[in-house]
Specification:
8-stranded antiparallel beta sheet; Topoisomerase I, domain 2; 4 domains; Topoisomerase I, domain 3; about 40% helix
């Protein structure tokens, strides 16, 4: 008896889907793309509408043969690849090679649960050819870019190098950060710490001398100079001698409370995870690389533990919202639940309309699935579960107390008594709210309230405060930190370069190809990276311009939406402005620069002879 054939992308996903569909369906895996452009040669007819030549991969040949055999006995065909551009392209290629004679339906879902699968079966759609065009445009664009620009690097820098539309700007970010570090001039500055003899004791830091602000690290520029603020009151850079002299003059003295200021403290939870924030927090909290985060998340999705892990969105469906709020109430109690459901808005517009990354329904606590997952899987699942629950929990509340203390000391530089002002602050959390389950890393929030949480004794203006110890401390300003994978993902997101689904592979690629290496968690560029980026900046600036790269992503979105045409866009990108006013500019947001108007082909041809290999490779 014939039955529907369902094709998904991975064997793990096929196995999970089979559990819900049962024996009435034949579920097979395509194992990703079955066809691609041949590895050698351009294989794009640039003079005939940019028609590509595809071929089956070695694995694809076997897969297609097996699927054709299965299709002979099928009553209908369900294409159930992922609901994104690449998934749509895979379904389209399968359709092209299988040439089915039975009814074809496109089945999509963002979580592999009984309810989601049943809904997908009952609500199929057709192939979205706008998404297919966008996926194909991206593939052809990347082949054109690499095919034309990489040989320039072979001839002028070194054999075996490659350039890429997203890869090259990514390397440029790492190189630019290293340039900033090389150019950085450090500065020395001193301050004084005073620990009180109160109960509880607290630490205070010197912030003012004789009415002038004492310079801290943030008051210096990259040239090691103190920055003069708009007010015109330049902070004082304390030397070691002056700091030690002031500290000696403060020994044995009690400080006077100048002021006590109390402010209510309130902190709100972060949105549920999307791809970029999951990669960032997975790196910071679990010390996983971006590619490790995505690999583990892929496995959790395919086995039915979490929703689709490639998403630009942070919304929760109505079903998920109910499940989340029920879980908060059952796990932590009603007082921890936010009064009303909270929906979050994403910062940038993306290509897909998926939910946030969350546990699948019905929700299962990390403890209840601990025996089914390995340590990495469980850690990432717990992170996703905690973040999802926290998003619907009440704000954390408390009180932040700021205290200013003063005392006089003999200033050796002037021989006069001067007033020294010290500052201390602490936050007392009176209701943890969402913090009972999840606290975002300091890199994501800008500051981590948990680090600042401290109990200060009750004090009033005019009170005398005994001091247990006085210690002058020397500091040196630090160069900008190198990118980590997490901070690089954050920067790529801010600049809208590439897509969340590609960042992990791009960061891995620039390491594999010798442009970047890891020193601990830090990403360090090689000298090859410096040479390549210098060449591209001086001769192909448009191709590594961040706004140009981001606008290209915008145009791919427009192609997916049907508001731009694939062939026209590729024509403009490759051949440039040929006087055809009917062809829209390449960069819909930024407009065309002079280089972009030339087109990739002419840009390469006109610049090649101008490149001095010896000069480019000078360290």
């Amino acid at each position: 008896m014939s039955k529907p054939l369902v094709i998904v992308e991975s064997p793990a996903k096929a196995k999970t889907l089979s559990k819900f569909l049962g024996s009435d369906y034949d579920v097979r895996a395509s194992v990703g793309h079955v066809s691609d452009l041949p590895s050698k040669g351009l294989n794009i007819d640039v003079n005939n509408g940019f028609k590509p030549t595809y071929e089956l991969t070695e694995r694809g040949k076997t897969v297609v043969k097996d699927l054709k055999s299965a299709l002979k006995d099928a009553s209908e065909l369900y294409l159930a690849t992922d609901e994104d551009r690449e998934g749509e392209a895979i379904s389209w290629h399968l359709l092209e090679y299988l040439k089915p004679k039975v009814p074809v339906k496109r089945m999509v879902f963002h979580e592999i649960t009984k309810a989601a699968v049943d809904h997908a079966v009952n609500n199929p759609r057709g192939i979205d050819y706008g998404m297919v065009d966008a996926a194909e445009t991206r593939r052809l664009l990347d082949r054109l870019y690499g095919y034309e620009v990489s040989p320039v690097l072979w001839r002028r820098v070194n054999r075996g190098l490659s350039a890429g539309r997203v890869q090259s700007p990514t390397v440029r970010l790492v190189v630019e950060r290293e340039r900033e570090r090389i150019a950085f001039v450090s500065a020395d500055y001193w301050d004084i710490d005073a620990i009180t003899a109160t109960d509880p004791s607290f630490d205070s830091k010197l912030v003012g001398v004789a009415g002038s602000k004492v310079a801290s690290g943030k008051d210096f520029n990259d040239n090691g100079e103190v920055i003069t603020p708009k007010s015109g009151n330049t902070p004082v850079q304390l030397t070691e001698g002056r700091a030690r002299g002031l500290a000696e003059g403060l020994e044995g003295k009690q400080f006077t409370v100048r002021s006590v200021e109390e402010k209510p403290y309130r902190s709100s939870p972060k949105a549920p995870f999307m791809t970029s924030t999951l990669q960032q927090e997975g790196g910071r909290k679990l010390r996983l690389s971006s590619s490790q985060v995505m690999r583990v998340a892929q496995g959790l999705y395919e086995r039915g533990f979490i929703t689709y892990m490639r998403t630009d969105d942070v919304i929760l469906s109505e079903e998920a919202m109910t499940a989340t709020r029920d879980a908060v109430t059952s796990e932590y109690g009603a007082k921890y639940l936010n009064a009303a459901p909270k929906q979050y808005k994403k910062k940038t517009q993306g290509q897909d309309a998926h939910e946030a990354i969350r546990p699948t329904t019905p929700y299962r606590s990390p403890n209840s699935v601990s025996t089914e997952l390995n340590s990495q899987e469980l850690a990432l699942y717990r992170l996703i579960w905690q973040r999802t629950l926290a998003s619907q929990m009440a704000d954390a509340a408390g009180v932040t107390v700021s205290i200013r203390l003063i005392a006089e000391s003999l200033d050796r530089t002037s021989g006069e008594l001067v007033e020294c002002e010290f500052a201390a602050s602490g936050t007392t959390i009176t209701f943890p709210g969402y913090r009972a389950v999840y606290v975002a890393s300091s890199e994501e929030t800008g500051e981590d309230a948990a680090d600042k949480e401290a109990l200060l004794p009750p004090l009033s203006a005019g009170d005398m405060v005994p001091i247990a110890s006085i210690a002058p401390n020397g500091h040196t300003t630090s160069a900008p930190s190198r990118f980590t994978e997490a901070s690089l993902v954050k920067r790529l997101e801010e600049l809208r370069i590439g897509r969340p689904s590609t960042w992990a592979s791009i960061i891995q690629t620039v390491q594999d190809r010798g442009y970047v290496w890891k020193k601990g968690q830090a990403l360090v560029p090689t000298w090859t990276a410096f040479a390549v980026i210098r060449l591209l900046e001086e001769h192909f600036e448009a191709l590594v311009d961040y706004e140009f790269t981001a606008s290209t992503e915008h145009d791919l979105d427009a192609i997916a939406a049907g508001t731009r045409q694939k062939d026209q866009w590729l024509q403009r990108f490759y051949w440039g402005d040929q006087g055809d006013a009917s062809v829209p500019p390449i960069t819909a947001e930024a407009g065309d620069g002079d280089d972009a108007l030339l087109g990739l082909k002419r840009l390469v041809e006109e610049n090649l002879d101008e490149i001095d290999a010896a000069e480019i490779n000078m360290n």
